[in-house]
Amino acid sequence: MSEEHLRTALRKIKERFNLQDAEIMHYPPTLMVEPDKIVEVCQVLRDEFDFNFLCELTAVDYWPEQEPRFNVIYGFYSHANNVRMALRVPLNGDTPSLPSIEGLYKGANWHERELWDMFGIHFDGHSDLRRILMPYDWEGHPLRKDYPLGYEEPQFSFNYDEIDKRKHHARYEEA
Amino acid sequence: MFESTEVTYEELKHLVSDRALKGETVLLNMGPQHPSTHGVLRLLLELDGEVIVNCIPDIGFLHTGIEKNMESKRWEQAEVMTDRTDYLNNTGNNLAYCLAIERLADLDVPPRAQAVRVILVELERISNHLIWLGTHALDLAAMSVFLYCFRERESILDIKELCSGQRMMTTYFRPGGLWRDIPDEFEISVRRFLRMFPPRIKQYEALLTKNPIFMDRTRNIGKISAEDAINLSLTGPVVRGSGVAYDVRKAQPYSGYEQYDFMIPTGTHGDVYDRFLVRMEEMRQSLRIIQQALDKLPYGPVRSNNRKYVPPPRAELSTSMEAVIHHFKLWTEGFNVPKGAVYQPVESPKGELGYYVESNGGNQPYRVHMRTPSFLNLQALPLMCKGHLVADLVGIIGSIDIVLGDCDR
């Protein structure tokens, strides 16, 4: 019965918004959604098909590809029907932005802050888009693929000033 | 030139009420080294007298970049890091990661390995709840419970040490099964624990459940309704305390949970006391699951025979050329997981722990994201603590049961 609900929901949403399946996802069943439609699709999922629970919100960086550079994954669960599904949103370019779904699922708040912090994906209409895990003055977005692992150079007493100078230079250039 | 990186007044103004700007309420910093915040959690409290007007959690002090680090490790090396996220639920994290790989690679797990996984994960759940109970009671000034809980947890750590040689960071579950078979003493030790533990739960309940001080400090504190809890993506005992019977073990069983008979305890009021009752009953249900799994523990191999993912046993190396090649390949470049992505949820002691794992067909994960219960459950703290006293906040944090390693990753 619940599987049936999932099948009808997927079919109806696909028809209404003209969506494609995301081949890459093995589980759960996933649809590709354009960034400008995401709030509308989430609204329909929540109100008409009873997907009342946002279980997952994350992103993947496909750098050096630019179109799409990012994929944002929204995972949903329905308590009433005990089924899961997900949406994938492709995003282009180095400074992507998406409308926030915080108005529909309050739980998206910290998820979206995390994505801003880690990937630099801007969420329009978010109530409090600050960094959440990294320090507030951190530069760059660590989970991007062009952000190298171990970038921060350890400063010892013998080379403290030298590295410090480099850091200030980098900051100055960005500002 | 550094002004641009400073946080400005305008940026933070929306976090506090207008009364704070007029000076009618007090802003108080709590943590990150406060003993009752269970780790390095910093809270900015806006207080009217002793009543909390608003609470702004500040996390990230234990952020160690585990997700980023996993992308540069091979699949089996990255598993070691999953232990370190939620350090009170090591086997549970391993399980979620292994299940995700097994689903991506279509890898089979022998029934014996599945049963042992269930036993160890349920023991881990009890161990996690014991730590929670001890520290929660300690926060509410009941000191002896803490000492009793750590005494019982010791025997669970001993069982883990028996299996894997490690007391905490076991990495005992591997893709395709277990690292090695359980020793002969395993069954005796677990049965001894099963005999010993039920009277101990009674002891804790005698100390706390009808204790008037404990009840005064937990009933009608930190209430959250079922609708709010679902909308805020809460899971685990926090949402079950509000009456939502959502448990991944029942809803979408994995590792053979469908064969075991157990109940999902739920509360009605959604306050700190109900979450306490839910976790106490969960310990009993975990014992039931362990008992059933142990009674029908099947014999047989504990790792899959798929040699593309699982190294051959030592004995085969001296007789089979193929085994030597597989061994060499697995130890030099690791295994490749087919291209694809998967979201694998399991029920950790704190709630739904989900691993989003993506592979580009290589021998390293392309992306691993952990949907951790502590991170999302903590999000409800401001809602839960509004209008309560600062002293109650300590109980509310305890009742959410956070581990900051799990929260910040």
CATH class of chain A: Alpha Beta
How many strands, which pairing sense, and closed or not: the largest β-sheet of chain A? Answer: 5 strands, mixed
Provide mean pLDDT of chain B, rounded. 89
Q: Any low-confidence stretches of chain A, pLDDT <50, length ≥5? A: none
Largest β sheet strand count, sense and barrel closure of chain B: 3 strands, antiparallel
Rg of chain B, Cα atoms, Å = 23 Å
Continuous helix count of chain A:
4
CATH architecture of chain A: 2-Layer Sandwich
- Beta fraction of chain A: 15-25%
Taken together, the total number of domains of chain A comes to 1
Structural key phrases:
heterodimer; A: alpha/beta; Beta Polymerase, domain 2; 8 strands; 23% strand; B: mainly alpha; Cytochrome-c3 Hydrogenase, chain B; 3-stranded antiparallel beta sheet; disordered N terminus
Describe this structure in words.
The complex is a heterodimer of chains A (175) and B (409). In chain A, strand 4 (53-61) and strand 5 (70-78) form a beta hairpin. By secondary structure, chain A is of the alpha/beta class. Chain A contains four helices and eight strands, in the order H-E-E-E-H-E-E-E-E-H-E-H. Chain A is elongated. Chain A has a five-stranded mixed β-sheet with strand order 1-3-6-5-4. With 409 residues, chain B is mainly alpha-helical. Chain B has helices at residues 9-12, 18-22, 66-70, 75-83, 90-105, 111-139, 143-164, 185-208, 212-218, 226-231, 237-241, 248-251, 272-295, 314-317, 321-332, 373-378, 381-385, 390-400, 404-408, and strands at residues 26-30, 42-48, 51-58, 173-174, 177-178, 340-348, 351-359, 367-371. In chain B, the strands form three sheets. Chain B has a three-stranded antiparallel β-sheet with strand order 1-2-3. Chain B is globular and about 80 Å long. Residues 1-5 of chain B have low confidence and may be disordered. At the A-B interface, strand 2, strand 4, helix 3 and helix 4 of A face helix 3, helix 10, strand 6, strand 7 and strand 8 of B.
